Amino acid sequence: MSWQLDLIVLTMVVICGIAAINIRDLLGAGILFGAYSFMMCLLWAVMGAVDVAFTEASVGAGVSTVLFVAAVFRTTRRTKD
Amino acid sequence: MNEILTTIISKYNYWGFILLMMIGLYAMMVKKNLVKKIIGMNIFQTGIILFYVSIGVKKGATIPIISHGHGKEKHVIHAAEYINPLPHVLMLTAIVVSVATLGVALALAIKVYREYDTLEEDEINKKIRDQAK
Amino acid sequence: MRILGLVIVILCGSILIYHTSDFPDWGHPASPASTHVSPYYIEKALDDTAVPNIVTAVLADYRGYDTMFETTVIFCAGIACFFLLRITRRMEPSVTLYRHLPTGITLRIEKGGKEPDDSNIFKRIDTQWVPYDLIINTTCRMVIPFIQLFALYVISHGHHSPGGGFQGGVILGASVILFAISTDLRTAISRMSERLGAFLSATGVFIYAGAGALCLVLGANFLDYSALAPVLNVNSVMARSHGILIVEIGVGLAVMAVMIWIYYNLSSAGRHDEGL
Questions:
Q1: Which residue of C129, C166, C263 is in closest CB contact with A55?
Q2: pLDDT digits (tens, 9 = 90+) for A24-76
Q3: What is the pLDDT of residues C182-212, one digit of tens each?
Q4: A79 domain residue, yes or no
Q5: Contact (CB<8Å) A75/B54
Q6: Which residues of A touch B67 (CB under 8 A)?
Q7: Disulfide: which of C20, C53, C181, C216 matches B14 by Cβ 3.0-4.6 Å?
Q8: Residue C131 pLDDT > 70, yes or no?
Q9: Which residue from A minimizes the CA distance to C260?
């Protein structure tokens, strides 16, 4: 558990989070949120929380991305901001 | 100079989760699109979960699974050798609950879209005002 | 509004960052979170429950109440999605599409037209999204059994490795969702119906609460699995281990069914007819 690796992954998480709320396409936002969740899962694996990382990999990066895609499929991709 | 560096190394993780919470809060307050607000809510949740997990970290400790084998004599388990498992337990359930709340939130968004044919907050407000007239 | 929001957010963030100076250093072994109750869990979990993975032991045994009500929250979320979105009255679609399987020709039938009744030759397909790709279909058909096997492994091996009811249940649910994506939603619903999903999610919560109530009947506290020792014919330490497994199975069933249920309702917007 080196702090350099931790810092790199944390920076990636913040970048993915900012990108997910700023992209002007809801499908892209959902996919970027999946990338954000996966980076978060890596961060928790670095911190030694293996159970939490496993849960986040299956729930956050798997099912919640599917739910976002399904909701966008049923509504619209358009967004103003 | 060296003291500042040690302060940064020992505290930057907390700053990281505060940054994530700020991103989530900003998205929930300022963004007009409902799905963007839901994404902001989830970022806020993961920020708080990150805080809980990071207070359980111990330097020089291993993951909270006790190494054992059949037939070996019992060795004494020291608490300092294992990472604190309690925040992990609380947050593990919180993650699964967060996906359930995400499902309900998206169901509400679909319901709103079915009713008003848009996901933008200002357009929904305008349509409600027009209906009231 | 944008400026006001930014000011509020930065104000909150700066207050929080100012107060991080009171926090213990990151990764400090003597931080308050690691000194009160967690050393007991770490040192006693293996002796008390014979479960090497401390997270599983604390999740299902020491803090069983918490997990039980989290499972109930998930169950309630599934029901909430159902009541928000489900449309039970049948909506006749204006256009239905059928594929003639031997030739691959698509039939377009307007409203009121005669529908083909031979289901061996004609197959109904979605109007918006027609997922028919040989590679995707074959790959998913081959991969799904292994995903389900892995999910069962995760549930049953949660005592010794990362995993447990929540993760295994989500992976099981994801395998059915993958099936629904690779074929279509009607095929998935014909395999795993909504009625079965509702029944399984309620069964999962019932197994959890029932294991607790059984302990109560046998004369111990609620969710104190050591009381199950005479029933399971093992000593009290192994009874706690087996009790954790029973509870994890309940959690896995409930989580699996709720994930599938939410996906059905979201992807078809409550009609359970055409979906992603």
A1: C166
A2: 999 999 999 999 999 999 988 888 888 999 999 998 888 999 999 988 888 88
A3: 888 888 888 888 899 999 999 999 999 999 8
A4: no
A5: no
A6: none
A7: C20
A8: no
A9: A63
Q: If you ran DSSP here, which 8-state letter would residue C26 be given? A: T
CATH number, domain with residue B25: 1.10.287.3510
Flag whether A19 is in a domain: yes
| Domain locations along chain C | 42-89+128-267
Residue B74 located in a structural domain: no
Token digits for C131? 């997922």
**pLDDT for res C219:** 86
Neighbours of chain C (3+ CB pairs under 8 A): A, B
In the predicted structure, residue C31 carries a pLDDT above the cut 90: no
Number of structural domains in chain B: 1
Encoded tokens for C136: 């995707």
Q: What is the ipTM of this complex?
A: 0.92
Residue B87 lies in a domain: yes
CB C97 within 8 Å of CB C115: no
What whole-number distance in Å separates Cα of residue A69 and Cα of residue A77? 10
Domain residues for the domain of A69 are 3-74
Note the pLDDT of residue B13: 83
Structure tokens at C203: 């069964």
Contact partners, residue C74, CB within 8 Å, separation at least 6 = B96, B97, B100, C254, C255, C258
For chain A, what is the domain count?
A: 1
| C59-88: average pLDDT | 90
Using a CB–CB cutoff of 8 Å, tell me whether A81 touches chain C. no
